[in-house]
Fold this protein.
Amino acid sequence: AAAAATLTASYARAQEPLMCDDGLDDDDDKFEGPRRHTLADPNRYDSIVIGCGVSGTAAVEAVAKHADRGHRCLVLESDAFAVRRCEALSAEVGSDIIDCVRARAESLNPLLRQVRTTQGDEYSYAKKCLVATGAAAAVPPPGFVDELCVESVRCLGHGEAADAAAVRDAFSVAKRGGRVCVVGGSWQAVALAAAVARAAPAETAGESASLVFPEATPIGARLPKDLGKKLRKRLEKRGVTVVALHQIRYVGPNEDNRKASHAVYLARADDAMKTTRCSADLVVVAGGEHVQQVQ
């Protein structure tokens, strides 16, 4: 009888719901998705985004709006402006799952799912890692820019702070009546050349901005040829000197300082023996996308 009573009591206890202290308040008993574990490795994330430019920002915005509760996302960016923009975006959408760290990624090991920064810190991810660093525009190789002209050749793509400084310098040169040569057939190059031409005073209209690229039309890698031709006409109408099918070969001092301080020597993209030159006080290499022309 005693054994039967013991078994009956044990069975009754087994039917009762299991009660345990989960560390949550009573209002949080309702399950609403995975929660961040307070004892988890602080350097372990669900996803990592390297770079916070156009693509990286779009990815961060998507994660902040659509990721599951408890998802942890790390953004690694070396540019201070981009980090502040990432933090502002995270605050704007009311998300606490985005961590923005100012650091430069040095290596990525997809097998270990680990990212190492130049400071030696290591971060791991459980699901995805997006490399959205973009690429800097290709500058003329060493020896193609005279040592007296190095300070007047800027290259976009080295971070928002450096790009903003180069753009400010281009506007400053144009506003005082100088000449700016923009190299590249990308959207960025076209927009900069048009803005520089617009910033120039009326007396130097048509001389302040030139756009040099190796394709037949601006943004030729993305736009159909007909649209590229229309874009070229629009640029020329706004005062941009468009030099298509040419590549930069050398930047050196200009003997005729009355026009500009530097001479930019160009060669035909399809025939390097055919050369020409233009004058510029500042050369901005904005890059391009050299793929097959869209028909």
Notes: DSSP finds six helices and 14 strands in the chain.
